[in-house]
Design a protein that fits this description.
By secondary structure, the chain is α/β, with parallel strands linked by helices. It is about 45% helix and about 15% strand. The protein contains 23 helices and 25 strands. The strands form 7 sheets. It has a 6-stranded parallel sheet with strand order 3-2-1-11-12-7, sandwiched between helices. Strands 16, 17, 18, 19, 22 and 25 form a 6-stranded antiparallel sheet that branches. Strands 5-4-6-8 form a 4-stranded antiparallel sheet, with helices on one face. The chain is globular. It starts with a strand and ends with a strand. The protein binds ligand ME8.
Length: about 675
C-alpha cells in the first residue's frame, strides 16, 4: 500500500477581498502536496471556505440576497483564483456542505451527551468583526486584541465547551511531541499567552446568529465558529457523515498549515476537541508568518493611502504568469516569519532567479543542442574532473530538497534547487561550450557538457514541478518528458536521459522584465484605479439610498445648478479628514476659549487647540471621537502648537462637535 499524506489549509472567510497574502497559505500547501504526490504518496490536500456567522448574515442582508447566494458568488471567485494559480486540491470543503453539517451536529451532540459541552449564560465583551468573546484582560487598550475594533458587552444563553479541562493534557502534548507545533517559538507563545493565564471554557453556540449549523437538539442555537470551522478537517474525510473510507485512510492529518494569528485555535482548541472525541491528534501544525505590504498585514492594509503595490493575484497572473507569483510567495518570505512585499523585490526576484538563472540555463543548453547536434541529445563521450562537482551536487539534490520539505522549509528547498542551477551556469562559463563547438576535436567534450547540463535541467525541473508546475512542465517538454509521469524517486538519479532523446529549443519561459519601466507602469495603473474607484464611489448615481434619490429629485426640479464656488472631487480630497479619539484634554492657560486636546489617530498622536471651551468641559470630551482635519498646516495658538483642527457644527450660539459613529476605528479616513 502507498504511504499517505494529508495536508490542509485553513478554510477561508468569504471576505471577497482576495489578495496575494490570501494566496500564501494555499500556494505553500499546494507545493508541499505536489512534492509528496511526486514521491509516490497518496495525498489528500484539503482547502475550502468558512461561511457561517454574523458578518456574512449582515453583508447578505445589506445586499438584499440570502447568505447562501452571497457566499456562492465569493466562493466561485476564490475557486477561480485557485484555478489560475494551479492549485490542485483534493477537496474544496464549504461549511455549508451538507455532509459537513452532519459531522458538526454529531460532534456537538456527542460532546454534550458526554458532558464536555454544557449550557450556561455568556456575559462578556464581544467583537462583532471577529465574532469572538474576550475577557477584560485579553483586550488591548480596551479593544479587540485581534482587529483593534471596539468591543461591546453581550449576554446570551450559550453552550460551552470545557476547554479548561484540557489545559494539562495540552501542555503534556507539547512536551511529549516537540514536532507537534512549529516553528518552535509558537510553543512558548501558546503556553505563556494562553495556557498559563488559564484556559477559559469556550462559547460554542449562539442564539442571536441564525446563519449557522443548527444544534439539532436545541433549535434556538446555532453552532458558533470553532466547532464548525475546525471540524472541517475531519468532516471532509467523511467522519460520521457517511462513508468513512477516507477518514480511515488519511486521519490523523500530517500537516495543518495556518497563519500565525489562528495558531492558537489549531494548537489548543482543536486538539482539545479531538481529545474529547477520543481521536488521534494531527501530527504537525505549522504557523506561518504574514505577507506585509507597507508594514501591515495585507488584509488589514490602510485603505486610504494610494497603494501602488500590486496586490490582486489576477494582476500578477495576467502580467507575469502564474508561476512568477507562486515562485515569489514560496521563495521570498523567510518561512515562519513575516515578509514585506514590494513591486521592486518581486520584479527583481523574478528577473534574477527565473529569467536569468533558470531561463538562461534552459535556453542556452537546448539552443546549443539544436545548433550542434540537430536537436538530438548524445551520450557523454568522456569524463573530466570539472564535471564532478556539478554531477555530485545534482545527484544529491533530491535528498536535500526532500529534507527541506520534510522540515517544512519551502524557501530553503528553492534556494537549494537554485544553487544547483547557479552551479550549472557557472559550469557553462568554465567549460565554454561555444568554444568547444568550433573545434571538431572537442565534439566529444561538447557532447558530455551538454548531456550533463541537460541532466541538471531534467532533475531541477522535475523537482520544480512542485513549486512552479506550469513552467517546469514546459521545460520537461523540451526533453519529451511528460510531467504527469514524473516520480521523484526515479527522476532523482543522474543519467536518466537516454541518448537519442529529441530536444526542442526552449522558448523564453520567463521573459526578462525592464524593472524601471514596469515599476512606472504599475504605479500609473494603481493611481488610475484609485482615482476611478474614488470617482465611482462619489458619482450621484452610485451614492447610497437617500443621497441617490436626493440627487435625482434635485435634477428633476432643476435644483442642481452651477455654483460659483464649486470645487471638484480632487480638490475636496486634498482635505484629509480622519476619525480621532480624545485621549486627554485641558484648558489653555490664560484663555477662556481654547482647549488643548491630545488626539489618537491609532497610528500616531496629535495635539490640537480648539476654541470650544465655552461649549465643552475637558472631562466631557475625553473618550469622544471627533473629526480631525489631519493635513492642516500646524499653527501656534497662544503659543501652543496645534496640529490640525476638529470639526464642529454651529447654529448661532449653539456649537456642537461633529461626532462620527463610535464604531469607526481611530485613524479612519472620512470622505
Ligand atoms: O482565519 N499573509 O480565515 P481567513 C499571509 N476562517 N497569510 C495570510 C494573509 C497575509 N497577508 N492574509 C490572510 C480564517 N492569510 C478562519 C480559519 S480554519 C478552521 C478557520 C492567511 O480567511 C491566514 O493567515 O482570515 C490564514 O491562514 C488564511 O489566510 C485564511 O484566513
Amino acid at each position: 500500500m502507498k504511504d499517505t499524506f494529508y495536508i490542509s489549509t485553513p478554510i477561508y472567510y468569504p471576505s471577497g477581498s482576495w489578495h496575494i497574502g490570501t494566496c500564501y497559505t494555499t500556494v505553500i500547501c499546494d507545493s508541499i502536496a505536489r512534492f509528496n504526490r511526486m514521491q509516490g504518496k497518496d495525498v489528500f490536500f484539503l482547502t475550502g471556505t468558512d461561511e457561517h456567522g454574523q458578518k456574512v448574515e449582515a453583508k447578505a442582508k445589506e445586499k438584499g440576497v440570502t447568505p447562501k447566494q452571497y457566499v456562492d458568488e465569493i466562493v466561485a471567485d476564490l475557486k477561480n483564483i485557485w484555478q489560475l494559480l494551479d492549485i490542485n486540491y483534493s477537496r474544496f470543503i464549504r461549511t455549508t456542505d451538507e455532509d459537513h453539517a452532519k459531522t458538526v451536529q454529531y460532534i456537538f451532540k456527542r460532546l454534550y451527551e458526554q458532558g464536555d459541552i454544557y449550557k450556561s449564560v455568556y456575559e462578556g465583551l464581544y467583537c462583532t468583526h471577529c465574532e469572538s468573546f474576550f475577557t477584560e484582560t485579553q483586550l488591548v487598550d480596551g479593544k479587540c486584541p485581534d482587529c483593534g475594533r471596539e468591543v461591546h458587552h453581550e449576554r446570551e444563553e450559550s453552550y460551552f465547551f470545557r476547554l479548561s479541562k484540557y489545559a494539562d493534557k495540552i501542555l503534556q502534548l507539547y512536551q511529549d511531541n516537540p514536532e507537534f507545533l512549529q516553528p518552535k517559538t509558537r510553543v512558548n507563545e501558546m503556553i505563556n499567552n494562553f495556557i498559563k493565564p488559564g484556559l477559559q471554557d469556550l462559547c460554542v453556540s449562539r442564539t442571536s446568529v441564525k446563519w449557522g449549523i443548527p444544534v439539532d437538539f436545541d433549535k434556538e442555537h446555532t453552532v458558533y465558529v470553532w466547532i464548525d470551522a475546525l471540524s472541517n478537517y475531519i468532516s471532509a474525510l467523511g467522519y460520521h457523515n457517511g462513508d468513512e473510507t477516507l477518514f480511515n485512510k488519511f486521519w490523523p492529518c500530517d500537516l495543518h498549515m495556518t497563519g500565525k494569528e489562528i495558531i492558537r485555535f489549531h494548537a489548543i482548541i482543536w486538539p482539545a476537541i479531538l481529545m474529547a472525541l477520543d481521536l488521534p491528534l494531527p501530527k504537525r501544525i505549522y504557523g506561518h508568518g504574514w505577507l506585509l505590504v507597507g508594514g501591515d498585514k495585507l488584509s488589514k492594509s490602510k485603505q486610504d493611502k494610494i497603494n501602488t503595490e500590486l496586490t490582486d493575484p489576477k494582476d500578477f497572473v495576467a502580467r507575469y504568469g502564474k508561476d512568477s507569483l507562486r515562485y515569489y510567495l514560496l521563495r521570498e518570505i523567510p518561512f515562519g516569519t513575516d515578509g514585506v512585499y514590494s513591486n521592486e523585490n518581486f520584479l527583481n526576484r523574478i528577473n534574477s532567479d527565473l529569467s536569468n538563472d533558470l531561463g538562461n540555463l534552459v535556453s542556452r543548453t537546448t539552443a546549443m543542442i539544436n545548433q550542434n547536434f540537430d536537436g538530438v541529445l548524445l551520450e557523454p563521450a568522456d569524463k573530466d574532473e570539472i564535471d564532478n562537482e556539478l554531477i555530485s551536487m545534482v545527484s544529491e539534490l533530491y535528498d536535500v530538497v526532500a529534507k527541506d520539505i520534510e522540515e517544512i522549509n519551502v524557501p530553503r528547498a528553492l534556494q537549494d534547487i537554485f544553487k544547483v542551477v547557479g552551479r550549472a551556469n557557472k559550469y557553462i562559463d568554465e567549460t565554454t561550450p561555444w568554444v568547444l563547438a568550433k573545434d571538431p576535436a572537442k565534439k566529444g567534450r561538447l557532447q558530455t557538457v551538454l548531456y550533463n547540463l541537460s541532466e541538471v535541467i531534467r532533475i531541477c525541473a522535475s523537482l520544480l514541478l512542485a513549486f512552479i508546475p506550469s513552467s517546469a512542465t514546459q521545460i520537461l517538454a523540451c526533453y519529451s518528458i511528460n510531467a504527469d509521469d514524473v516520480n521523484l524517486l526515479e527522476a532523482k538519479n543522474f543519467g536518466g536521459l537516454k541518448a537519442g532523446t529529441k530536444v526542442i529549443k526552449s522558448q523564453p519561459i520567463f521573459p526578462r522584465i525592464d524593472v524601471k519601466k514596469e515599476l512606472k507602469e504599475i504605479e500609473d495603473l494603481m493611481i488610475k484605479r484609485h482615482k476611478e474607484s474614488q470617482k465611482s464611489a462619489y458619482k450621484p448615481e452610485n451614492a447610497q439610498n437617500g443621497d441617490e434619490n436626493k440627487a435625482k429629485d434635485n435634477k428633476k426640479s432643476g435644483e442642481i445648478c452651477e455654483h460659483p464656488d464649486e470645487i471638484n472631487i480632487d480638490e475636496f480630497f486634498k482635505v484629509e479628514l480622519r476619525v480621532a479619539k480624545v485621549i486627554s484634554c485641558e484648558k489653555v492657560e490664560k484663555s477662556d476659549k481654547l482647549l488643548k486636546l491630545q488626539l489618537s489617530l491609532g497610528y500616531e498622536e496629535r495635539q490640537v487647540v480648539s476654541g470650544i471651551a465655552k461649549y465643552y468641559t475637558p472631562e466631557e470630551l475625553v473618550g469622544k471621537k471627533v473629526v480631525l482635519v489631519a493635513n492642516l498646516k500646524p499653527a501656534k495658538l497662544r503659543g501652543v502648537l496645534s496640529q490640525g483642527m476638529i470639526l464642529c457644527g454651529e447654529e448661532g450660539d449653539n456649537v456642537k462637535l461633529v461626532e462620527p459613529d463610535m464604531s469607526l476605528p481611530e485613524g479612519s479616513r472620512i470622505r
